[in-house]
């Protein structure tokens, strides 16, 4: 009732950028020149390094001339977020139109800061699927959502960056230090795909559909800020950076990019056809479980068809369910090489989800499907961007490798929540060289210093093969503490799989 009592808030929808407008921007010209030899194809680059992912977002914020559109599920408060917010305000001061669309759960406890950001004339902040009560703390937010649990357990999980309608980023990264290798003690191993060319336009259209949907509400409806509050926010961010600019993370970034011969942050651009896919923005308000054909997952399955030779599934949270397990087993039994890369119990940040995966693990192994689980602690000296070195880590990548010519990168995990309840976005790219690069990351992640290979003995007993201290080790029990095992068991006892 409180949420409905306020006066209607004027909604400025914002027109899409025209091709002529895009071509006048620096990024638009760079994208056009880069794509000129490709004969109308889209360009793709995988960004696996957390440092590169952060620096690329800073670069896009600094190079944008007209518009920055950012869609995210969560926004933390740390080194990287504060720098990015400062860059967004700098861009707004240059006349760039900045639009930030944040799932309402990600806005919990941050109303004052978001309202201050929104007070800038060139910045708009909206929250998706909001509640007017309990906004100060996650506990009160969850309690307030109980009367609307049928809709409030569904979230906008999309992650999308768009700069001047010319460059787009899709993938698993939210806004927070753990996504950019800046957190202690734990970071996420994650993956973005940068795109230019024809595939960017439909991604921009997806943002507009969400931005203009009735579930997207201006932050000013729930949190008020004084006129010009952005000035105080910008000053405080500048003062903070003045005190923390010599932090080890920023010093490491300067050293990382000090060599001018290193080349562009995104590395090689791969060229091919691209298909942008997203869930309908009204999915969160649909009654019951939607038909598969109405979801992004259903669209992706229809677009991909059945793999002929190989399928690689990389998912932070892997809950295939009965139907998914049958599908993967049928592929493997038909001669398709199927591999799954996910978190181990000791590495996952949600043991409840891992419990639902455990139920199907035996059947997958029975059909010869390869299972690899990321370790929580990598061996010192382990190299590669699918890990975060020797610190504690967890997998957060959401990607598919299909045969030797297609790659999907997006925000969706291989679980019921991403299929049925949340909204997601991603890009399917047709490119053999891109597929080879993704397979290289997968092969790196399979290194026994980074992950466990789950398998069975001839008698059917499960084991976890890895390498510790330079020696091959076979663990006959699943790695993970008592509380993690209890958390995993709880999801099985309560039969939570359809909601995970």
Automatic annotation (TrEMBL):
A Gene Ontology BP annotation from the UniProt entry: cardiolipin biosynthetic process
Residues passing through the membrane, by range: none
Pfam families: PLDc_2 (PF13091)
Family matches, as CDD domains: PLDc_ymdC_like_1 (cd09111), PLDc_ymdC_like_2 (cd09113)
GO MF terms held by the record: phosphatidyltransferase activity
Residue span, PLD phosphodiesterase domain: 152-179, 391-418
Protein name: Phospholipase D family protein
């Amino acid at each position: 009732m409180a949420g409905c009592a306020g006066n209607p808030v004027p909604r400025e929808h914002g027109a899409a950028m025209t091709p002529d407008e895009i071509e006048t921007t620096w990024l638009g010209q760079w994208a056009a020149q880069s794509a000129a030899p490709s004969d109308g194809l889209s360009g793709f680059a995988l960004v696996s390094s957390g440092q590169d992912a952060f620096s690329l977002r800073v670069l896009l914020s600094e190079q944008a001339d007209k518009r920055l559109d950012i869609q995210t599920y969560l926004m933390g408060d740390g080194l990287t977020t504060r720098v990015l917010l400062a860059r967004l305000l700098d861009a707004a001061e240059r006349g760039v139109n900045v639009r930030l669309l944040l799932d309402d759960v990600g806005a919990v406890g941050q109303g004052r800061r978001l309202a201050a950001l929104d007070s800038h004339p060139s910045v708009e902040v909206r929250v998706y699927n909001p509640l007017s009560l309990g906004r100060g703390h996650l506990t009160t937010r969850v309690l307030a959502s109980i009367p609307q649990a049928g809709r409030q357990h569904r979230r906008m999980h999309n992650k999308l960056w768009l700069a001047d309608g010319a460059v787009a980023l899709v993938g698993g990264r939210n806004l927070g230090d753990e996504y950019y290798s800046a957190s202690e003690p734990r970071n996420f191993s994650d993956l973005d795909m940068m795109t230019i060319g024809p595939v960017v336009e439909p991604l921009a259209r997806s943002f507009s559909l969400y931005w203009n949907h009735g579930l997207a509400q201006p932050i000013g409806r729930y949190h008020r800020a004084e006129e010009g509050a952005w000035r105080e926010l910008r000053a405080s961010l500048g003062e903070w950076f003045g005190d923390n600019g010599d932090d080890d993370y920023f010093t490491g970034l300067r050293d990382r990019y000090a060599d001018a011969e290193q080349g562009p942050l995104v590395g090689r651009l791969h060229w091919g056809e691209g298909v942008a896919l997203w869930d309908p923005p009204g999915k969160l308000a649909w009654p019951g479980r939607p038909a598969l054909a109405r979801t992004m997952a259903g669209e992706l399955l229809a677009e991909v068809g059945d793999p002929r030779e190989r399928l690689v599934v990389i998912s932070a949270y892997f809950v295939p369910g009965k139907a998914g397990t049958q599908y993967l087993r049928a592929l493997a039994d038909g001669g398709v090489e199927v591999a799954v890369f996910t978190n181990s119990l000791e590495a996952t940040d949600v043991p409840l989800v891992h419990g639902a995966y455990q139920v199907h693990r035996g059947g997958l192994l029975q059909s010869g499907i390869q299972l690899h689980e990321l370790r929580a602690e990598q061996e010192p000296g382990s190299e590669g961007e699918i890990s975060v070195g020797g610190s504690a880590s967890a997998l957060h990548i959401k990607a598919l490798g299909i045969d030797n010519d297609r790659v999907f990168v997006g925000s969706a995990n291989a679980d019921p929540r991403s299929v049925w309840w949340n909204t997601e976005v991603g890009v399917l790219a047709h490119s053999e060289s891109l597929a080879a690069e993704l397979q290289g990351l997968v092969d790196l992640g399979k290194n026994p210093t980074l992950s466990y290979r789950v398998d069975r003995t001839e008698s059917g007993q499960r084991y976890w093969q890895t390498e510790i201290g330079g020696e091959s080790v076979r663990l006959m029990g699943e790695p993970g503490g008592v509380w993690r095992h209890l958390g995993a068991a709880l999801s099985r006892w309560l039969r939570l799989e359809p909601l995970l």
